[in-house]
Amino acid sequence: MARPSVPSWFYEQSSVIPFRSGKHGVEILLITSKGKKHWIFPKGVIEPGLSPRASARKEALEEAGVEGVVHQEAVGEYHREKWNGTCRIQVYAMEVTRTQKHWEEERDRKRLWVPASEAANLIDRKALRRMLKRFLKNLDRFIS
């Protein structure tokens, strides 16, 4: 296997499943990947000095322009091959309390609020669908 092209700490990442209570029940926020080919959740490298939860909160603000409560308990984790290695991504639920009109990565990404029942149909990555299903199965733990 080729030597990783990035520092080892890049392989530890975190993500949030942003959600809110809407007119028709729970809604999930999806964003596009940078290439705008896939609907995903905000995710990024856990920067040195940040906890996985704090990093996930930071990514949500930068990538999706949302703020809120990141729950203590992780929804789960998944693994993804990237940078000639395997990344471990810890996933948290984030109850969105504020949505910015403009955000840092607005030019690179689209965002879309969808009913929870429809979100999985838009996500083509199996690991993300699995995390969403796990979140929805345990929704009562995350709703305030």
Question: In a few lines, what is going on in this structure?
Answer:
With 144 residues, the chain is an alpha+beta fold. 25% of the residues lie in helices and 42% in strands.
Give a topology summary.
Elements: E1 12-22, E2 25-32, E3 39-40, E4 43-45, H1 52-64, E5 66-82, E6 85-99, E7 111-115, H2 116-122, H3 126-137, H4 139-142
Order of helices and strands: EEEEHEEEHHH
**Unreliable stretches, pLDDT < 50, 5 or more residues?**
none
How much is the average pLDDT?
A: 90
Level of helix content?
A: 25-40%
Quickly count the helices: 4
How far apart the termini lie comes to: 46 Å
Structural notes for this entry:
This protein is of the alpha+beta class. Strands 1, 2, 3, 4, 5, 6 and 7 form a seven-stranded mixed β-sheet that branches. The longest helix is centred in the middle third of the chain and has 13 residues. The protein is globular.
Q: Which key phrases capture this entry?
A:
4 helices; single chain; seven-stranded mixed beta sheet; alpha+beta; 25% helix
